[in-house]
Amino acid sequence: MPLDDASPARVPLADVTPAIALGPLDGRYRPTVAPLVDHLSEAALNRARIEVEVEWVIHLTSHAVVPGAPELAPDEEQYLRDVVATFGADEIAELAEIERTTVHDVKAVEYFIKRRIAAAPDALRADTVLPQVNELVHFALTSEDVNNLSYALMVRGAVREVWFPAAVALTDEVAALAAQHASVPMLALTHGQPATPTTLGKELAVLAHRLRRQLRRIEGDEYLGKLNGATGTYGAHLAAVPDADWQMVSRTFVEHLGLTWNPLTTQIESHDWQAELYADVARFNRVLHNLATDVWTYISRGVFTQIPVAGATGSSTMPHKVNPIRFENAEANLEISSALLDTLASTLVTSRLQRDLTDSTTQRNIGPAFGHSLLAMDNVRRGLRGLAVDEAMLARELDGNWEVLGEAVQSAMRAAAVAGVPGMENPYERLKELTRGHRLTAQDMRVFVDSLGLPADVTERLRNLSPGSYTGLAASLVAHLE
């Protein structure tokens, strides 16, 4: 019987308590990405807004910017900062209730802080001067003055305190595996075909080196902020207090927050720094994606074996399977993260004339972009920890591909020809005829080497060469990671 409108009614899952997450980051994968909630959630955005507004009041009063404003005592400054520190479930609910009236998120933050200032005489002391600075909350600010600084603080915190440490830890684990297997010879594959042997450690070191290079870029990225009014002109600031050096006030405030001051903007900070950061993180993602696909392929080839987890199921029907799901999960999440980061980077740098609102919705997806990357890193780390190297398999594969020594022999012939040894004509072509499309044994290669008429020391060196020893400087190259 086909499903149709007459199907039995079902329980509306949207009404279930506690609420069911729509997305996997807030559902299935919540434990892994939870640290980002403290930085990139809607609640974190509002807490950052409160922090910016509070610090602005303290900055104006401590620098005597507005004539007549009292200087705050240390306990009064602490009282304001405690509004940020104690922002939790009850305050989130209260702020949401205010916003239902204001229908404006930043205005709701302003009113929330003013409630706390109004309560200061009862909560702090009767003679507090805090009520006198009530109108310095959101003084001469536009919403974007608050928002751009809030997002800069949020993203900086998320990167430095959560994402970056996880990325460094992952990269260090890859580097450690590279060092551990620096001398393990392995047949290389170029275009999927047997090629000059390498070592497993050297190939892992290449990936660790690439990841670390991106981390250096990310570590050096700037976080910009601005505070200059509705169209970036300090118009309201000068109208209210014409004698203040508003550019200096703005710069010192932005730098007080630990951000880089942007002196030239429209109503919004131009978001170029975000585009630069997200491009760097996306590039890190893509290098990590390359690692995931390479490791997946090594598992498929038998280079790595997976250590079974007790009680785990690899396939619902094939009990023998141990699937490389950690690396497949990582691939998918890295692709989602990179797509989101690409969209953020490409759209945030454009705002019509002096301001449009497209960045408001766009920036609310910064959390998922970093969340999928963080989830991918967790999967890669867990996957790497469940691997073992099958060195016997690698040795068998190398021993079955003696033809890869053709490169070494023809290169030695070229060097001998330059040194004046006769009979070294057409070395590449002669090795091509011998090896291309043919499987050679150790004996086949040694007979050919003996027939060339090379100097005795060269002949001996080539006779002693095997696919397993033809790895050049691969093992020592891993030291570049130190």
TrEMBL record:
PANTHER family: ADENYLOSUCCINATE LYASE. Pfam families: ASL_C, Lyase_1. InterPro entries: Fumarase/histidase_N, Fumarate_lyase_CS, Fumarate_lyase_fam, Fumarate_lyase_N, L-Aspartase-like, PurB_bact, PurB_C. Residues 351-471 form the Adenylosuccinate lyase PurB C-terminal domain. It is an enzyme of class 4 (lyase). Residues 27-330 form the Fumarate lyase N-terminal domain. This is Adenylosuccinate lyase. Its EC number is 4.3.2.2. Catalyzes two reactions in de novo purine nucleotide biosynthesis. Catalyzes the breakdown of 5-aminoimidazole- (N-succinylocarboxamide) ribotide (SAICAR or 2-[5-amino-1-(5-phospho-beta-D-ribosyl)imidazole-4-carboxamido]succinate) to 5-aminoimidazole-4-carboxamide ribotide (AICAR or 5-amino-1-(5-phospho-beta-D-ribosyl)imidazole-4-carboxamide) and fumarate, and of adenylosuccinate (ADS or N(6)-(1,2-dicarboxyethyl)-AMP) to adenosine monophosphate (AMP) and fumarate. Keywords: Lyase, Purine biosynthesis. Transmembrane segments: none annotated. One of its GO terms (molecular function) is lyase activity. The keyword rRNA-binding does not apply. Pathway: Purine metabolism; AMP biosynthesis via de novo pathway; AMP from IMP: step 2/2; Purine metabolism; IMP biosynthesis via de novo pathway; 5-amino-1-(5-phospho-D-ribosyl)imidazole-4-carboxamide from 5-amino-1-(5-phospho-D-ribosyl)imidazole-4-carboxylate: step 2/2. It comes from the Bacteria.
